[in-house]
Amino acid sequence: MVGDGHVEKRSKDKKKKKKQKRGGGKKKMTAEQSLAFNSVTEWVYLDQSHSSSSSEDDFGVHQILNRAVDNNVVFELHSHSNFSDGYLSPSKLVERAHCNGVKVLALTDHDTMSGIPEAIETARRFGMKIIPGVEISTIFCQSRGSESEEPVHILAYYSSCGPSKYEELENFLANIRDGRFLRAKDMILKLNKLKLPLKWEHVAKIAGKGVAPGRLHVARAMVEAGHVENLKQAFARYLYDGGPAYSTGSEPLAEVAVQLIHRTGGLAVLAHPWALKNPAAIIRKLKDVGLHGLEVYRSDGKLVDVNFLEKIDNFLLLLCLRQITYTDLADTYGLLKLGGSDYHGRGGHGESELGSVKLPVLVLNDFLKVARPIWCGAIKEILESYADEPSDSNLSHITRYGRGKMLKRNYPLNCGKGLVDECLSLWLTNEERQSAEFEAIKLKLSHVSINQG
After folding, report:
1. Proportion of the chain above pLDDT 70, given as a percent
2. Segment (H or E) for 433
């Protein structure tokens, strides 16, 4: 009997070790991670804890109870919908993210924020949070008068009520979108000269009504026309930076975009630095004008010497070395280390899935530590504009994104103060709301009535 007991114990120990090797055992959080997790989840579930309808209360409570046992809060900080060059609508994108366990989704379409309202409406059904974002197309020049230009993409992340100077940002983005139309037409012209006939109507149809076409739309048209076998081939042969069918649009300088993101209350992050020819120089220059972070948590960066990398057989080691390189760059310049899947929904081998890039909780906490004061300032600026001039135009800045629109329809708010109280309870923590500035704004709006028609 004693022998049987020892055998059973050894068997259990073996099973336990196997489970640990497979990653089945959960690591216990450190004190620092636990504090970070609590801070992150407080923000993630903020609007659910203040939900006012019964169905949302039930869903919100369910989520809040579950978060105690779910130590993995998934943020997806880089995604695209069919409002730019993605394949899925914002609604379908949110649904897919929810199925993948994503709690916070940043929709970062190229040069447009038009898909944000639809994403937010859908996210409400799933108890998810949307970060209004955009990926801005820019160029970088090493020096004045330099003829060598390099495409650089800057991610901008905004608060729940969006940019503090919406019109300024929208005009800036509209100019880039106009350039994308001209750029696509020029690429088609170059392809036609290369004996690869393509029609503008074909590309425009793929892009969709009102969507500024990009290289991916042209590549899809090339595949459908039978000129190439797949998207990868279209880019590798014709559409790569500087390729025979490549063309530039009216992209602004990267430094100008970063400065604009600052002015409009956003967080500026360099997208996919591994695609750049000289990332160190670009990061250094953009840091000087206010860059907040760069994408690090991706597996396809390539700053380490290529010849050295080719000698490495261990694929996991290779990925680690590449990631460490960008981590070092971020540390050198004091930048946030972020990342996302850059999901487009094209399917097939090689595309990262929504939520596949798992950001550590300490990274998420660092992100919010930097972002939340900036977003709080932007919200304050928007509310102050309305308090100083309670016009419909300024009111629209409050209700453009998030649940402000729903509040106007569903809550009998008699004055601006009531609207501000409700909005702040959804957007900010108790600590963030308790400021003299917000109290002064509410006092100004206490006698301002809202037209709820």
Report:
1. 78
2. helix 430-433
